[in-house]
Design goal:
This protein is mainly alpha-helical and 217 residues long. The protein has helices at 4-12, 14-18, 50-65, 81-86, 91-96, 98-110, 114-127, 132-147, 159-168, 178-197, 200-209. The radius of gyration is 34 Å and the shape is elongated. Residues 1-30 are annotated as: Disordered. Residues 90-206 form the RGS domain.
Length: 217
Amino acid sequence: MPTPHEAEKQHTGPEEADRPPSMSSHDAAPPGPPSRNPCCLCWCCCCSCSWNQERQRAWQATRESKLQPLPSCEVCTPPSPEEVQSWAQSFDKLMHSPTGRSVFRAFLRTEYSEENMLFWLACEELKAEANQHVVDEKARLIYEDYVSILSPKEVSLDSRVREGINRKMQEPSAHTFDDAQLQIYTLMHRDSYPRFLSSPTYQALLLRGAPQSSSEA
């Protein structure tokens, strides 16, 4: 039978007597700041990571670029009355005229669809390029500017055409966007062109070239 002194040692225990008191839940060290989740590099805009913030700033800069003046290569001398009248004969005649493209592009800008003309012009420029290194770079820029869903200047393409572009972008060529260019050309022809012909812009050009009546002479 243990003596009272031994019983006391068994109750406290030398190890427990020397052990520092355990921390309670109230005394626990405060947790450190939550670690940042690594950027997911996702293709959506739902997360607030720094990568997407950079993309947002890039998008804003691209939006502002749409307010820049038209390139000088598409700003031409005033068209003749005969040329203006020819634009109403067919969409092809309008698009084959540098002045016609410039006037039509200005009209598209008022409808917030200028990216259709910009995309078509970029494809024309790509098809005229022979240097493969330049083709690769221009194709990448066209994709980022007009095909990517992240771009504010994304053009309206169906899924079949998009899938075809994604396959061709593995080895870009001067004709990577031919199907997409035709689709946007058709869209402008059927959708924007009829409104352009009845727009105040085009009607004013027609009146400017109309012969003066004898009463106005």
